[in-house]
Amino acid sequence: MITLEGKTYTLRPSFAALLQLEQRTGTGLITLARKFADGSCTLAEAEAVLRAGIEGAGQSAPAELGLLLVQTGLAGVAQPLAAFLHLALTGEESSAGKA
């Protein structure tokens, strides 16, 4: 779960959303997860991961997602997005509450 400007979104790593994430970023999931872990992710990558998580949960990402990301701050979304990527790589349901 992640909250952006008072609205809570569920993040879920569906297969289709993860494929789209790799296409949007031109980067594989393991590399993206490493970038989030070491703090070298770009704003575009953060937006793409966030969009993939929201859409993977069957929700529509808001049109102003980039603006919401900036308003929340990259530091405010980094942990939930890293947890989402971890869940995508491991499939561990116990991490779902953190994503």
Task: Present the secondary structure layout.
Elements: E1 2-4, E2 7-9, H1 15-25, H2 29-38, H3 43-56, H4 65-72, H5 74-90
Antiparallel strand pairs: 1-2
Helix pairs in contact: 1-3, 2-5, 3-5
Q: Roughly what percent helix? A: 55-70%
Strand content: 5-15%
What is the ordering of alpha helices and beta strands?
EEHHHHH
Number of helices: 5
Structural domains: how many? 1
> Helix/strand-derived class?
mainly alpha
pLDDT averaged over residues: 89
Q: Please provide the count of β strands.
A: 2
Shape estimate: globular
* Cα-based radius of gyration, to the nearest Å: 12 Å
Fill in the keyword field for this structure.
single chain, mainly alpha, 2 strands, 61% helix, globular, disordered C terminus
Explained architecture:
The structure is a single chain. A two-stranded antiparallel ribbon has the order 1-2. It has helices at 15-25, 29-38, 43-56, 65-72, 74-90; strands at residues 2-4, 7-9. Strand 1 and strand 2 (7-9) form a beta hairpin. It is built from 5 helices and 2 strands; from the N terminus they run ββααααα. The longest helix has 17 residues, at 74-90. By secondary structure, it is mainly alpha-helical.
